[in-house]
Amino acid sequence: MSKLARFYRHSEGARGFALMSPTMLVMLAALAAPLALLALYSFWSQNGYALDTHFSLAQYRASLGRVGYRALFLRSLEISSLVTAITVLLAYPMAYFVAFRVEKSKFVWLVLLTIPFWTSYLLRVFAWKVILGYNGVVNSGLMSLGLIHQPLEFLLYNPTAVVVALAHAWAPFAILPIYVSLEKIDRSLLEAAADLGDGTVRRFFRVTLPLSMPGVIAAAVVIFVPTTGDYVTPSLVGGSNGVMIANIIEVQFDKVGNWPLGAALAMASMATVAVLTLLFVSAVRAATGRIR
Amino acid sequence: MASGKSGGRAGLLGYAILYLAFLYAPVLFLPLFSFNDSVFIAFPLSGFTTQWYEQMFSDDAMLHALRNSLEVGAATALLSTILGLLTARALTQFRVPGGAAMLGFTSLPLFIPDIVLGISLLILLNSANLPLSLLSVIAGHTLICVPFAITVLLSRLEGFDKSLEEASRDLGETAWMSFWRVTFPLALPGIVSSLLLTFIVSFDEFLIAYFLAGNEATLPIYIWSQLRFPYKLPAVLALGAAILVASTLLVVFAEWLRSRGLDNRKRITVGA
């Protein structure tokens, strides 16, 4: 015991481990164990009310084989890719502005840009239903101005509405990482490029943009991965054409009650997203390397 | 050339203002229509009223959900901040082998869709024959809040001057007292802002709670249940406006505290 105590006192690693162990235990119990069970369930089957615990690939065959599910996977990925591209493109100039043009009140700008992130996600998405709805802000506004006589029906309940609402809800996630990587750029590099005769535009594409790519990649990943699994937005503004994979997963755990199928759908979508993300990150890295 | 440059400058500022409008305008329609004297959420506005607020705050189901959310939020904030503090302290004070990998592991919940976290916790509780309750919601929320707590506290403890604590030890304080009298007060702004931010994340979280709450309802679950009744929308808008104002105040306070803390720390390090 005293040997152990002496070892403990002298070993930084052991003391570090001891301090971290509560968090690690919680993460093992609430993250690793549930995910392992999810994986296990995806190889089982639902037999009426009972679970058939024989190993089977039936759920994966259903998840990937049925046309309806495949279409949902594709649509979720399409919507998330669009959301990611739009959000990052819109956020870049904003982050650039705060990093290079704002001098004294940077902190105020950053807080202004992050406040919406901390206010209710449900309500931010719901706001778009209020805006785009049949009797919503846009339609009633245009009608009271006399510009239209019938409410426009194409505004809500389609994939475009999902993209708009998601791009709005996730905006702060793009700004912060891009801002941080722009802020880190050594200003003397920009001066050097200018001294060597690069114009503003050329300098931006040859120096600023490549150096800020880590922030762009981080922003893209942090938006793409969670939005593929978004449930609230497609339910509120997507309509039947805007349904995404999370909606169908939720159904398996609710009304229909086929947990193994829901687990397989979740596993398959996580795996797809992980592979796509890795491909994207390595492709962007390779492309940036070539510019430099 | 000079005029072109200032043109670009004005253009960027204009863009920044438009961007802020895009961020804020949709959300600001909620408070606007919450004072509108009509059950339809449409222009033109028909008159000022506070009846939706009165209706909302006399709704027992809403008050019950609000109390649940406050309890879950407080417990989550406390748990995740304690876990975050232990982890941040371990990583900043000791050279822990595999520390980076463990930090990566704790940030995984940020990269897994909430729906997956929700259903996998549901499967775990179900397999262990544990009942769904507010306790399971607290567990789920703690899971997603730990990464936030660690990030806030790590940035607070990282630049921290180790010599202050060593000086305290040299002057005869025990390790525990040194922590209590030196480290803790210095980390306090980070601790408070971690408590506030994790509280807000939990208070707003819908999907995980939706899977794990069983027969109870948190405030977002209550709101979700109201959204399908058109005649209840104005009262939901009133509730939404109240939540927006309260959480904005909390965030501004948390951020202000964090930035003030950072300034203080600089001063102390320079002084030492």
For this entry, give a set of tags:
heterodimer, A: 292 residues, mainly alpha, MetI-like fold, two-stranded antiparallel ribbon, 14 helices, 2 strands, B: 272 residues, 11 helices, 78% helix, globular, disordered C terminus
Folded structure, characterized:
The complex is a heterodimer of chains A (292) and B (272). Helices cover 78% and strands 2% of the residues of chain A. By secondary structure, chain A is mainly α. Chain A has 2 domains: 1-41, no CATH class; 58-291, MetI-like fold. A two-stranded antiparallel ribbon of chain A has the order 1-2. In chain A, a hairpin with a 2-residue loop joins strand 1 and strand 2 (50-52). Chain B is mainly alpha-helical and 272 residues long. Chain B has a single domain (59-271), classed as MetI-like (MetI-like fold), CATH 1.10.3720. Chain B has helices at 2-34, 51-57, 60-93, 99-106, 114-127, 134-158, 162-170, 175-204, 207-212, 219-226, 233-271. In chain B, helix 2 packs across helix 11 (233-271). Chain B is globular and about 70 Å long. The termini of chain B are far apart. Chains A and B meet through helix 2, helix 4, helix 5, helix 6 and helix 7 of A and helix 1, helix 3, helix 4, helix 5 and helix 6 of B.
